[in-house]
């Protein structure tokens, strides 16, 4: 890289170049990572180094804001501190009665804590504490017969009414109904007022020839894999609620059904498809304050419809790289035909990582996969099958740690990683950089003279933080007709 190229990366605070070079500021005697958020130096005061050791050998000292020495050693003490605090909150949320307790435990000032939670977890301390309490309560509802008041108190809620209100809002059903999932294979999920069903139908029927899902009127069906085995999930859409039913999938050969599927798992999938845990109203308020209410006009409650599983989102991201959507759908269907499980009802259960890992590149080349794309799909599936990439663990990682984990996988770049984090893991502050739908939306929203490049996209999307995932979803729809 030339000095000019490296200087442009430090001006953009581009974390993707951390470790590829370090830069020193001669006027201050400090060296930093390219992602450092400190005030940007003038080009004439900057010197570039291949390693932290080279910077120190020139008499420079490490920046106390970006900690380049820690990065060079593979350590990140600030991130590790926040991760430790979050782990304690999730293990025992009642031990943190309010946000002040979180700030005290962290050892940082309040402003710094809010900044770190937003950067590393895409949320505020208050929201993370609330969701930790709800997760604690959900676990108790499934494992104990204690009364609701006791469960609410153990999770740290100040009253039963507050517990009930938050639980229903983010889960789509009451605590009593959630407890009853273990004895049922059908349940109702309440929708927020103004939920845009038309946009949901559009999301659920993106691939009209899909082998794993279909939408017929207001009835959506999809084949999924649960811990009990393959199952068929059906959602009947209505204005105020969605009726969900889960049944064991029939074997395509014998016609027999497997073990009774888990309605708790089915609720997680359905709630993800509906985006119930996303704060769409908060993003609409932010857009209005920015003077950009036109971005959310007619769809203030629009949500991100998440993928059925993390593995499905990962496959979508790899297959969809640098090709149009129609061709990506075709390649995905061919992989499902090759490695999925056909049912007797016209649907196919998506393939497992183990099934895809058993394929060879030559198996996929006749399906019109490029050699590199086939290699990435198979190699990544083998990492999962061999236990070297734990997809379930990604849900509990910080956004920073999840991003670093995914970026380390060959074949996954910034666009792919942000797509997976947004659509499969549910992180709320992601931007799939380089996405043509995003840049087309920004071009129209801000009435720009030309399509923004990656650096311009980053700058324009910054105003939507910490809701850039929802902003991305709205931008994808901005130039499309109302469904």
Chain-wise SSE layout:
Layout: H1 3-11, E1 22-25, E2 30-32, E3 46-49, H2 52-57, E4 61-62, H3 68-72, H4 77-91, H5 99-106, H6 110-121, H7 125-143, H8 148-155, H9 160-171, H10 175-179, E5 186-190, H11 197-204, E6 213-216, E7 219-226, E8 229-237, E9 241-248, H12 263-274, H13 280-289, H14 310-319, H15 325-339, E10 341-342, E11 348-349, H16 353-357, H17 361-364, H18 371-385, H19 391-394, H20 399-407, H21 414-423, H22 436-445, H23 454-462, H24 468-478
Parallel strand pairs: 2-4
Antiparallel strand pairs: 1-2, 1-3, 5-9, 6-7, 7-8, 8-9, 10-11
Helix pairs in contact: 4-7, 7-8, 14-21, 20-21, 22-24
Would you write up a description of this structure?
- With 483 residues, this protein is an alpha+beta fold.
- It is built from 24 helices and eleven strands.
- β6 and β7 form a beta hairpin.
- α22 packs across α24.
Short characterization:
Helices cover 48% and strands 11% of the residues. With 483 residues, the chain is of the alpha+beta class.
Mean pLDDT: 93
Proportion in helices: 40-55%
Please name the CATH topology of the domain at 77-177. Answer: Arc Repressor Mutant, subunit A
- Count all strands and give the number: 11
- What structural class do the secondary elements suggest? alpha+beta
Q: What percentage of amino acids are in beta strands?
A: 5-15%
Note the gap between the termini. 47 Å
- Count, helices: 24
CATH homologous superfamily grouping of the domain at 77-177: Homeodomain-like
Oligomer: single chain
Radius of gyration (CA) equals: 24 Å
Q: Give the second-level CATH assignment, the architecture of the domain at 77-177.
A: Orthogonal Bundle
Low-confidence stretches: none
Q: Outline, from the CA principal axes?
A: globular
CATH class of the domain at 77-177: Mainly Alpha
């Amino acid at each position: 890289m030339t000095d000019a190229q490296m200087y442009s990366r430090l001006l953009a605070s581009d974390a993707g170049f951390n470790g590829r070079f370090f830069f020193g500021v001669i006027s201050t005697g400090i060296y930093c990572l390219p992602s450092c958020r400190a005030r940007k130096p003038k080009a004439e005061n900057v010197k570039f180094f291949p390693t932290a050791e080279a910077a120190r050998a020139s008499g420079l000292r490490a920046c106390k804001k970006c900690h380049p020495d820690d990065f060079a050693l593979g350590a990140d003490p600030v991130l590790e501190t926040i991760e430790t605090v979050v782990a304690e909150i999730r293990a025992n949320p009642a031990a943190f009665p309010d946000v002040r307790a979180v700030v005290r435990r962290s050892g940082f000032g309040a402003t710094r804590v809010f900044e770190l939670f937003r950067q590393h977890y895409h949320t505020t301390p208050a929201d993370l504490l609330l969701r930790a309490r709800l997760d604690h309560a959900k676990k108790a509802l499934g494992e104990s017969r204690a009364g609701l008041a006791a469960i609410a108190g153990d999770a740290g809620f100040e009253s039963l009414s507050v517990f009930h209100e938050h639980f229903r809002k983010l889960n789509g059903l009451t605590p009593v109904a959630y407890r009853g999932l273990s004895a049922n294979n059908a349940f109702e999920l309440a929708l927020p007022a103004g939920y845009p069903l038309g946009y949901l139908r559009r999301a659920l029927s993106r691939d009209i020839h899909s082998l794993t899902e279909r939408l017929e009127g207001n009835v959506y069906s999809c084949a999924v894999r649960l811990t009990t085995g393959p199952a068929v999930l059906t959602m009947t859409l209505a204005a105020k609620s969605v009726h969900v039913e889960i049944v064991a999938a029939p074997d395509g050969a014998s016609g027999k059904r497997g073990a009774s599927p888990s309605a708790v798992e089915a609720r997680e999938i359905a709630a993800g498809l509906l985006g119930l845990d996303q704060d769409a109203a908060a993003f609409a308020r932010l857009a209005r304050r920015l003077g950009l209410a036109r971005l959310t006009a007619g769809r203030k409650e629009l949500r991100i419809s998440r993928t059925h599983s993390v593995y499905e989102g990962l496959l979508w991201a790899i297959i969809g790289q640098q090709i149009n959507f129609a061709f990506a759908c075709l390649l995905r269907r061919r992989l499902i035909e090759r490695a999925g499980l056909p049912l007797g009802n016209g649907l196919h259960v998506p393939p497992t990582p183990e099934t895809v890992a058993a394929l060879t590149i030559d198996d996929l080349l006749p399906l019109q996969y490029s050699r590199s794309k086939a290699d990435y799909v198979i190699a990544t599936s083998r990492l999962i099958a061999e236990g070297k990439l734990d997809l379930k663990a990604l849900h509990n990682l910080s956004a920073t740690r999840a991003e670093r984990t995914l970026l380390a996988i060959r074949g996954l770049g910034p666009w792919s990683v942000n797509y997976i984090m947004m659509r499969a893991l549910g992180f709320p502050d992601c931007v799939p950089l380089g996405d043509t739908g995003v840049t087309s939306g920004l071009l129209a929203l801000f009435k720009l003279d030309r399509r923004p490049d990656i650096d311009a996209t980053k700058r324009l999307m910054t105003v939507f933080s910490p809701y850039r995932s929802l902003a991305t979803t709205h931008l994808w729809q901005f130039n499309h007709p109302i469904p």
